[in-house]
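When time allows, look over one protein, given below as sequence and tokens. The question is which stretches look regular and which look disordered:
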Amino acid sequence: MLNFKPISLESLDEIKEYLPCKSNRTCDSTVGTLFMWREFYKSEYTIYNETLFMKVKILDEKTSFTLPIGKRPLEEGLQTLVEYTDQMNIPLIFCAIPEEAVEPIKNFFQNNVEFQFDRDMSDYLYLSEDLSQLKGRRYSGQRNHMNKFRKMYPDYQYIRMNKDNIGRVMEFYDGFSKNMVKAMETAIEENKRTEEILPLIGDIGLFGGFIEVDGEIIALSVGEIINDTLYVHIEKALKEYPGSYQMIMNEFAKDSVNESVLYINREDDAGDLGLRTSKLSYHPHQLLDKYYIKVIK
């Protein structure tokens, strides 16, 4: 019935067709997330009955499934996974299920499910107007950092990534990653996959920009837009340039959003307390909670 195969660069065109069908704003079903983390989670996909199915290895290497995405009713996709897991004689476990899909899944399985919530997985969703304009008293701290940056580096430039300058961007990131403290396994994987994905900017639906000071790149950001949301997958800056993180966040937001892009998803914090403090300081519009769900057969 379902014939899963690994995600590859060649498969992205097929996968991308279904991503606008998603009815949520979580980052898990985006080109950047799927491609960057495909090996870490041993991700596989298949398309059946006009629906994209994804399975990953998570929760102690157990096979898990993300929410089916497609042009057919969700119930049809859930039934397909019931039949597949019965055929394979494996439990039906869902991961990264957005909160709005919890009730439909509970109803379909008549409440025969077990839930597990992981705060570390919650995405930070912001209003695009907030991050692109930083208006109001609550953003005074960010504006102060940015004003200091502008005063110290009045001739800075924000530049869009393209095929002509991507070589310089890769050189910057190579030096940046070598100086990072790589304590977490996810950080190591992110570094490796960022180096892989940068040459593909403009080819797979991702775009980016960087800040330059005195001819040297000091910060970069990469993302994509699906429906009404900008997803920021990569954001790096040199901390020795005070205010560089605030500047690249704001410049990328201003350059990327338009009247049809209402939200910015800056992904989860992976349980990093420093990152959590930083993301909360930008006053998210909503935390997009996600769940593990095990079906009790």
Q: What stands out?
A: The first helix runs from residue 12 to 16. The radius of gyration is 20 Å.
